[in-house]
Amino acid sequence: MNKLYEIIKFPEFGDNRGSLTTIEFNSGILPFKTQRIYYIHNTRVGVSRGFHAHKKLQQVIIAVSGSFELHLLGRNSKEILYLSDPSEGILISSFIWREMHNLSDDCVILVLASEPYTESDYIREFSEYLEHLEARTC
Ligand code: T46
């Protein structure tokens, strides 16, 4: 069974003031050179996001505030992850279908991406995603 994700634990420095988490781009902790950072915030209550896969893009997804469920689907497996730890990133490779559900009202999702934004890298139709998986087994 293919693994759908990996967990990356970032260094966290806590003291009596609170916590500070670092992501050093040149430390080797990330398996790609980060080309883009974006964050998802102010999501309306009850709204889900994602519903796509990428052809080339790899990314690391972090709940830097609040929590959400990350639903992942691959060739033979699916996973539901609960993200709420700002010092933990979920590494997702290409051709993994992802959905984000149950975002808390304080949820901020930070994403580190391996590629610049290109709409042609997205597979937004689930039927098309299944066709891609099928073609990749041939
Ligand atoms: C992903 C999940 C976790 C841009 O113009 N530039 C960008 O870098 C991004 C990420 C998006 N956009 C535009 C494209 C859409 O018009 O912003 C709009 C919202 O994007 P989207 O509907 O794709 O947002 P999500 O939350 O469904 O998905 C996003 C990422 O697009 C995607 O790569 O894996 O977060």
What does this structure look like?
With 138 residues, this protein is mainly beta. The protein has one domain (6-10, 30-137): Jelly Rolls, CATH 2.60.120.10. It has 1 helix and 12 strands. It has one helix spanning 126-137; strands spanning 6-9, 12-15, 18-21, 36-40, 49-54, 59-65, 68-73, 78-83, 88-92, 97-101, 108-113, 122-123. A 5-stranded antiparallel β-sheet has the order 1-9-6-11-4, with no helix packed on it. A hairpin with a 4-residue loop joins strand 7 and strand 8 (78-83). The longest helix has 12 residues, at 126-137. The radius of gyration is 15 Å and the shape is globular. The chain starts with 5 loop residues before the first strand and ends with a helix. The mean pLDDT is 96. The structure holds dTDP-4-keto-6-deoxyglucose.
